[in-house]
Design goal:
It is a single chain. Strand 6, helix 7 and strand 7 form a beta-alpha-beta unit. The chain has a single domain, classed as P-loop containing nucleotide triphosphate hydrolases (Rossmann fold), CATH 3.40.50.300. By secondary structure, the protein is α/β, with parallel strands linked by helices. The protein is globular. The strands form 2 sheets. A 6-stranded mixed β-sheet has the order 5-6-7-3-8-9, sandwiched between helices. The chain has a 3-stranded antiparallel β-sheet with strand order 2-1-4, with helices on one face. It binds adenosine-5'-diphosphate and magnesium ion (MG). Magnesium ion (MG) binds next to helix 2.
């Protein structure tokens, strides 16, 4: 009998059941101003369908790690496997949806066309036979993100929060099994941010894509995640991975429970612990 695990490590089709594996990754930036060791000895394994957050202070290498996973930056040592593919292969086959901090939409297209564009690009990758995406209905996702009435508007007609919601909608509609989000709410005001965190929770709990999310808010990390990866700076290392076993679906009420407060405190303490160990 063939070993099912070895099949899962091989082709992209079987690897649909696999996971994300970051092994001994190191990233050194060389520039005119010298050498920066941004990441060192990063080992991380993420199960399919989990919401995992990289948490740590500014400059600890969160964005660098996310960009390495996305294939936007090449590591100087180590390896990354995304459901059996390299980041470059996964990116070529549109198996990664990247959601930036802001300005993700094309200004000359309507919201619906912006969202549909990602599906068109995906079909190209599908024709080559290596896409792992599961198509999502754009109108349903736009409704879930409360953008149903703004499908025909252009990005300039929307508030910052709505534009960011549209960027998230586009990510889900793209149908990629892996969504990468680098502080997607950081450009928004606090109230909008709270509303968007809950929207993202609701939509994610329905679609269950694998998400790697970056934040420097302990509150946001605990509210959204299955696991919080706490990083320490100089060079960025993983201090520990904290399981967030709060029940799902989660609502804002969960943030008022003792368990939630304890988890936020634990995440913050772990971070401080990492800083002190570093000094
Ligand atoms: N393109 C680059 N060239 C040189 N140094 C960089 C580059 N990008 C990031 N760095 C450095 O790498 C470290 C980690 O940065 P980054 O990944 O952006 O951290 P974070 O997202 O946690 O704030 C920082 O010291 C930063 O200055
Ligand atoms: Mg960053």
């Amino acid at each position: 009998m063939p070993d099912p695990m070895s099949a899962a490590r091989k082709g992209p089709r079987d690897a649909a059941f696999g996971s994300i594996c970051v092994e001994k990754v190191e990233k050194i930036y060389e520039s005119d101003r010298g050498t920066v060791r941004a990441l060192s000895d990063i080992d991380l394994s993420i199960e399919r369908g989990r919401f995992v957050t990289l948490f740590g202070p500014s400059g600890c290498g969160k964005s660098t790690l996310l960009r390495v996973i996305a294939g936007l930056e090449e590591q100087t040592a180590g390896a990354v496997s995304l459901f059996g593919q390299t980041p470059a292969e996964a990116s070529r086959d549109k198996n990664i949806a990247w959601i930036p901090q802001s300005n993700a939409l094309l200004p000359w297209l309507t919201i619906r066309d912006n969202v549909l564009l990602s599906q068109k690009i995906n079909r190209e990758a599908e024709r080559r036979g290596k896409s792992l995406r599961i198509p999502e209905d754009p109108d349903q996702v736009l409704d879930e993100l409360k953008l149903g009435d703004f499908k025909n508007a252009r990005p300039s007609e929307l508030s910052g929060g709505m534009r960011q919601r549209a960027a998230i909608a586009r990510g889900f509609v793209q149908g990629a099994p892996l969504m990468l989000m680098d502080e997607p709410f950081s450009a928004l005001d606090e109230l909008t941010r709270d509303a968007l965190r809950l929207r993202l929770l609701t939509v994610w709990e329905r679609h269950r894509k694998t998400v790697v999310f970056v934040t420097h808010s302990a509150f946001e990390a605990v509210l959204l995640s299955d696991q919080v990866v706490v990083m320490t700076p100089r060079p960025g290392r993983i201090h520990s991975v904290i399981d967030i076993d709060l029940p799902r679906p989660r609502t804002f009420e969960v943030t008022e429970t003792r368990e939630f407060e304890q988890l936020v405190r634990a995440v913050k303490h772990t971070l401080r612990d990492g800083w002190e160990a570093d000094e």
